[in-house]
Structure prediction request, 439 residues.
Amino acid sequence: MRTMRVPRQCVIVGGGTAGDVNHALKQSLAEHDRFNPMRSCSRLGRMSDLVLKNVRPWGAAATDIVIRGGRIAAIGPSNEAGEDYSGAIALPGLVEAHTHLDKNMLGMPYRPNEAGPSLIDKIENERRKKLEWRIDPERQSARQVVAGIARGTTHIRSFVDIDSAVGLSGLAGVMATREKFADACTIEIVAFPQSGLCVHEAAIPLMEEAMAQGADVVGGLDPCGVDRDPKRQLDIVFGLAEHYGRPVDIHLHEAGELGLFTLDLILERTEALSMQGKVTISHAFCLGHHDLGPVDAALTRIARNNVHLATTGSPSRPVPPLLKCVASGINVACGNDGIRDSWGPYGNGCMLERAMIVGLRNNLRRDEEIEFALRACTRGGAALMGISDYGLEAGRQADLFLVDGATPAEAVVSRPPRRLVLKAGRVVARDGAALVSAP
Ligand SMILES: [Zn+2]
Prediction:
């Protein structure tokens, strides 16, 4: 086997299930002066051809996976030499389909959360604190990306705040991280008007500039609850999407009948612009109100238009019912949303943990049910991001990880350190530690 071995001093961010990210990041800060993180990224080197011996794809019978030129060349018994992984489960790379890389506080001093209870309280608190606490989007996004890579994440869709307070600084920082880690993780950027578009009109030209500068997706946020002008906000968002030929991803926290009303406006525009498959509704709490008659009709229309849903499985809000959505033909993806930020102190970037939370929220107990949560954290996210060569099949890009467990469900509930993480055939993490570093 010709696996690239990376010098030990590059291995700085531990990713064990109960690992203390802050502790690991403090270590990384201590080591930062001794080497250049950019140089350590380049040490991943070229793609290696390798054979993963004695692994179980998605928990099936043990076999070998042959990787050549960054792709899965074959899955089956191989006479070629390779490292024996003693029956570890091979899973396609985890997909973090909804997060906010620009504003986590990983590795920064802990700040007690004193935000008010409403959504607007949290938005306004964040506008103040992001600047006061000097949250550097480039540094912080790198830290979260490295934490995710250590835990098997190979693809990330991240929102990046665009508003008059921060301008395009968040975009510049996350774009730098996207470039720096291009060999280790695919990062897609959503230009996100966190403070609103109609109530903060300065964000409108900034959103346009963000798309022109290289954001991949047009974001939106509670057209009624934040902007109080749903038709106008959605026309701006979909107008930008049409102009730049980009997908749309809208945070929809609005509950009950109000949320269903906004959903109707989103679907109306999806149909009018033939944007089937290119629209995501994040959170969609309104679909969690099982007692509302129009929910079933909304699910049917969402499926018909191939609109993706992204959920966190929020423990504190109504959430779209995972199994019912899947049975309705809807693609559901998952994300950690913001972690360790001014909105809340939780999270470590682990998408297996997110699968567990989604499982708990949806009362998934049987192994086959828990695997639906894992599918949402893998294939569901890949479909949302439009990754066509994703998956554990011959010919697909070798984005995968190995983890111990009797079944995929056990990997979700136990979340042991990832034994190996590959991105396009490159080893990017081993034994729970990323082989790339962050400042
Ligand atoms: Zn979010």
